[in-house]
Amino acid sequence: MQRVTNCIIIDNGHLLLLKKPRRGWYAIPGGKMEQGESIKESVVREYREETALTIHDPELAGAFTFSIYENDSLVHEWMMFTFICKTYEGTLTDYCAEGVLKWIPVEHIHDLPMAEGDRKIFEHVLANKSMLYGSFSYTEDFELLNFRLDSSAS
Amino acid sequence: MQRVTNCIIIDNGHLLLLKKPRRGWYAIPGGKMEQGESIKESVVREYREETALTIHDPELAGAFTFSIYENDSLVHEWMMFTFICKTYEGTLTDYCAEGVLKWIPVEHIHDLPMAEGDRKIFEHVLANKSMLYGSFSYTEDFELLNFRLDSSAS
């Protein structure tokens, strides 16, 4: 099963996002876990590879299950672990193979094109400090079929 | 990839643990995630199935990657998500197919036989409120080969 880790850096009212070429949608920078990594090791490595930035003390903000359906059949399932981070070091790379990295003012996030489920994740994670748990079902064309979200009580 | 969720209930200075028949080792009650579940949905369902107790507001305390090696070859990898919980309802089942459920005084935990990595997880989770991230490598006979643990800064 594929497992993805990613991280929302918040710096001076801006978030670092990745505009992906295929649909022009914005996504949270990150990537696939490698064998034997913890989720935290993975997010630090992936973030550095994609952005050249080293994140400090990323904290897990959400854990999500994704199910992809073609007609009524499950074709793919993966998990995503989303961290949040306010301190980092390094200089943002000029070139990212995955798309274009952009600092976006927090108040503009909701105007950006993105996967519908990602929008719901942003809504929660930027407004709450509690962990978010969720499950999303999408079509192969990334149309959101249904979702469940649950935040911890603390 | 197999994914396991489990939960440490703390009630009046006691933890509910499962003594498994094979080695007589104590483990945290829980079980395998099912397709489409979030990790929180999984832990509530698994805990109810194994103990007949309904846990309230479980909070994620740790996320772990396990790699099992035979000689120098990786033969199995899975993930475990460990929650902690202080409130629940229901009456503990008289019969659990997986082993014997026992309330153990917290101060006796470290005397119990258990997987070496689980002991390290207990040491951290009972002493800290921060999230624990880790990766463990075991032999097929559950001898701990190496591990890395990292807790969040908060």
UniProtKB/TrEMBL annotation, chains A, B:
Keywords: Hydrolase. Gene3D superfamilies: Nucleoside Triphosphate Pyrophosphohydrolase (3.90.79.10). Residues 1-127 form the Nudix hydrolase domain. It comes from the Bacteria. The keyword Iron does not apply. Its cofactor is Mg(2+). This is 8-oxo-dGTP diphosphatase. PANTHER family: 8-OXO-DGTP DIPHOSPHATASE-RELATED (PTHR43046:SF2), GDP-MANNOSE MANNOSYL HYDROLASE (PTHR43046). Coiled coil: none annotated.
